[in-house]
């Protein structure tokens, strides 16, 4: 009974019933918004170094993130351009050898799709020892690896939108089985996690729709509260947090995903040789 109540509380702590954000909500503009988009393009036409940045899809995301406040959107985007250049986000980072981080069990996949065709970022943390990365002074490299993964995921969202036109955001599942305060929530770990979270919020606006956190232990939910002030309301409204009650989170995942799109560890039929059941 105690476990049931705990899982119920975990599920309700952040989970708000939401239908998710549709491509129509993101990409359908009013007349005034369309005029602002044209102004945005005019201001930035000589400042955007890559073709994908000059698409309506990309620019609308920054306007959405700024509630169509033109000056604010321009400020955010220009700050992001500098960051991407400084971090080598459009060249070097995607060609680096990341096998050292992969071998530390920091693994993910992007080959799943939900029932609407939205790409799925799936991240199990069961064997990741983040504390060891911090102690060995590799936290910065891990942070770059996370940036690379997020950039890969959000680039895939744009690619699928340009190809099919039916999706504007991705999905994410983080399997928190194995999370503990020693390896993941240590005092020296927390600033890095907060920095990675704020980096995601700052540099990939409106990229993820629904995000599922499963097998979340109670200490994690307390840590999640720390991230709330750094989190847009929209993200929190589409965040689904579940404890260890597999029946509960499997039932929820089945609403969004067909079995062949989920790992067997998530109740699906897809197998990965790097996921230990």
Automatic annotation (TrEMBL):
Organism domain of life: Eukaryota
Domain CRAL-TRIO positions: 98-274
Matching Pfam families: CRAL_TRIO
SUPFAM superfamilies documented for this protein: CRAL/TRIO domain (SSF52087), CRAL/TRIO N-terminal domain (SSF46938)
Signal peptide: 1-20
Keyword presence, Signal: yes
Alphabetized UniProt keyword annotations: Signal
GO CC terms: cytoplasm
InterPro entries recorded: CRAL-TRIO_dom, CRAL-TRIO_dom_sf, CRAL/TRIO_N_dom_sf, SEC14/CRAL-TRIO_domain
Name listed for the protein in its UniProt record: CRAL-TRIO domain-containing protein
